Amino acid sequence: MSFLISSLLAFAAGTSIVVQQALNANLRTALNSAAWSGFVSYFVGLLCMVVLVVVLRDPIPSATMAARIPWWAWSGGMFGAIFIALGILLVPKIGAATFIALLVAGQMLASVAFDHFEDVSRRSDPEIAAFMRELEIDIAVDLMGYTNEARPGIFACRAAPVQMSYLGYPGTLGTSFMDYILADEFVIPPEAQRYYAEKVLYLPECFQANDDRCVVAPRPTRAAEGLPDDAFVFCCINNNYKINPPVFDSWMRLLQATPASVLWLLAEHPQTRENLRCEAQRRGVSPDRLIFAGRLLYSEHLGRLGLADLFLDTLPYNAGATASDALRVGVPVLTCAGEAFVSRMAGSLLRCLDLPELITYTAGGYERKALELAHSPQALSEVKQRLAQNLARSPLFDTGRFCRNLEAAYRSTLVSLEPR
Asked: From CA 182, how far away is CA 230, in angstroms rounded?
């Protein structure tokens, strides 16, 4: 709501500037057809943009923006931009007013989204750490670890009294400057704490944050996705680098043991598809039984994901967000839990949903459970029914509850910083 109010105020400021500019330009002499068309176009466009703002209401991450906004709102925004541009062309003085209005809107929206925002991307690691100390930041959270474009040097310079690692790198950083790693008792069992340089800061239910406002698009037909209507659909809509030979061997054995089945994978590049088809054929499985999906808008991906019967997890690098996507839309996830954080992520989600029967611990157990579900419609139906019931009451997709748990964890680390 604060986003809506600030945006409407910004647009109102822009409108008043436009009127003032028009009056200063002697509106009486400007009342020709072109000027009138310009002013009308501008205000029609402004109205369309206000409608778009009303639909937004709250800040939305760019990654899910397209999935959250109805098509008619996008269309209104597009036409609004066109009309505003037309108005600026017909009445040039509106251009300066529009620029000022956009500056006002940007400043107001930034002040609503954050108490304080600083772009430090061009500064060095020591400079950023020193700046954070000047700001008296209490807790610094590293969401990158050892991944692309990470900046561990900032934390090595001790940017904050409390520093912790979360989510982006599911494992220990092996350093002395990272105080905590956020986890739960499944991904890092208490007996495994000795393998971590960081102190394990446990969240009470699940390590993974999820958005409970995600929009799921209508489910398409199987035919529209290239899937047979009468087949059992195993799927692993996941990054291909997680597929290794032992996992692929298991999947091919499942296809051989389940003749009326297909394997639905994510693969955008033609070479990836060709390689996987060749590997299937080498293992005695027809390449046609591998069906590939491309990337879609997030809401559309969630909609199509419900076409699968069973999501097969990978080992040793489990599905994380992709597993929660499947569970969100009612598709059971079968995992084989290992010993490391990265090999226990899907199991954590299933534990949170009270579905321990979908957590296996050996390759043989993994395959046996997959065949049980593929060959017994009743067993699969019972699992899906339990999943649907548990989704309604599980904390896994309760964003507010997760935030409260996370804030409590943060506060627990600040006790040592309080004056005695």
From this structure: 43
